[in-house]
Design a protein that fits this description.
mainly alpha; 18 helices; 0% strand; globular
Length: 408
């Protein structure tokens, strides 16, 4: 059993990265506003994540390349290469710095509920803890801390969903009977967008190389990686599912409007007793803390790979990237401001980047010179193409929404 547990790592980092305060808020709003109606979309997003993350991990294990490096090496045209580099830096580097504010603030809100003190003070402590953990430069330590936080989230959110006694029949109907309530298009896109996260492709392809170095047989590494990814991402999906179910069971068809995760914690107290607020706050802290660490780390892998900088936890340039992102997030969290313009720009860039990266992954995973017998087969290509089509649709809609062409 201990040997089995030691196989887990990169997949749980991916789960830790996509379950942040933004996901908790989005899932809470989705459940409160649409009940169980969008559970099918969440199931699809987990499927899409599994397909794309498996490809990312296989690229790292077989070709020993991070996705950023693969991008840089795949374009002969300098103009095209630099266009992709700029897009990666803006969408992931710049964007992650903007979103880091929410990660740190979310963890701080959870701690404020548990232990008092102001959100501003806790924001500095959370940011400092993220800096200290990454500054150790020890992959195994970072991995173990994040695994502990993911397991904490699992216990908190899944138990909460059980305690509210949801309608099992309605849950199954929401999963197996796709529907789209009026006015829920953006909620659907947000649910998928908080799970299929572009920077996780960069994080996964790099992290597997630390977990399974060259001296580990490729077939063994691939088998262990697929088990790690499958169970970890499924667990991440189950956590998000539990949050939607909790909000649906507690607040759907009520007059309560849920706008953020902190409000969700407070609103549960009358229903589940005084401990409910603290219980949910612990989950919110764990979600914020995991994203506060993994988002800057993923951005560092993406930006360093795209710029040709050595992606090494001990590298000063690599450290400078994730440190800058955390410090920017701490600064905005301290002043209590939300970098709205930066987030809008990042959303637009991600709307372009997600389908491009999905297409690129599909292309590179068919390269015999890189992957040999481990390149995609027919089934992998069909699944990947399906995900690419949906990702493209989501990307186009996000761009139209950000630019004001369609109503949000």
């Amino acid at each position: 059993m201990l040997q089995r547990l030691q196989q887990f790592g990169p997949g749980l980092l991916v789960a830790a990265a996509f379950i942040g305060p933004g996901t908790v808020t989005t899932a809470s709003v989705a459940g409160a506003e649409t009940g169980y109606a969008l559970l099918w979309a969440l199931v699809f997003s987990i499927f899409a994540t599994l397909v794309l993350q498996e490809m990312s991990a296989r690229l790292g294990i077989v070709a020993r390349l991070g996705l950023g490096e693969a991008l840089r090496q795949s374009f002969d045209s300098p103009l095209l290469r630099w266009a992709v580099i700029v897009l990666v830096v803006v969408a992931i580097g710049f964007g992650t710095a903007a979103f880091e504010t929410g990660n740190i603030t979310g963890a701080a809100l959870g701690l404020e509920t548990i232990a008092g003190l102001s959100t501003r003070v806790w924001a500095l402590i959370v940011g400092g803890a993220a800096l200290a953990l990454l500054a150790t430069g020890h992959y195994k330590l970072i991995e173990r801390v994040l695994i502990a936080l993911v397991l904490t989230m699992s216990v908190v959110f899944i138990l909460t969903a059980i305690i509210v006694r949801p309608d099992v029949g309605a849950i199954l109907a929401g999963i197996f009977t796709p529907g789209l309530p009026q006015g829920s298009v953006l909620t659907l896109i947000a649910l998928v967008g908080t799970t299929v996260v572009t920077y996780n492709f960069f994080l996964h392809s790099a992290a597997v190389q630390d977990k399974w170095p060259r001296d580990v047989p490729t077939e063994r590494a691939l088998t262990e990686s697929r088990l790690d990814s499958g169970l970890s991402i499924a667990l991440g999906g189950l956590i998000t599912l539990a949050i939607v179910i909790t909000a649906a069971a507690a607040f759907f068809n009520s007059e309560t409007a849920i706008e953020d995760a902190g409000q969700m914690a407070s609103q549960l107290e009358p229903l589940l007793g005084p401990a409910a607020k603290w219980f949910f706050a612990i989950g919110l802290f764990a979600a914020g803390m995991t994203s506060s660490v993994t988002a800057p780390l993923a951005a560092a892998y993406a930006v360093s790979g795209a710029l040709g900088v050595k992606a090494d936890l001990a590298s000063h340039r690599f450290r400078a990237i994730w440190a800058a992102i955390i410090v920017i997030g701490m600064g905005f969290a301290w002043f209590g401001t939300k970098p709205v313009q930066a987030i809008v720009i990042a959303q637009a860039a991600n709307g372009i980047l997600l389908p491009l990266i999905a297409v690129f992954l599909l292309v590179v995973m068919n390269r015999r010179d890189l992957l040999g017998e481990h390149r995609n087969g027919l089934v992998g290509n069909l699944l990947g193409a399906f995900v690419v089509v949906v990702a493209t649709g989501l990307g186009v809609y996000t761009l139209l929404s950000v630019s004001g062409v369609v109503s949000s």
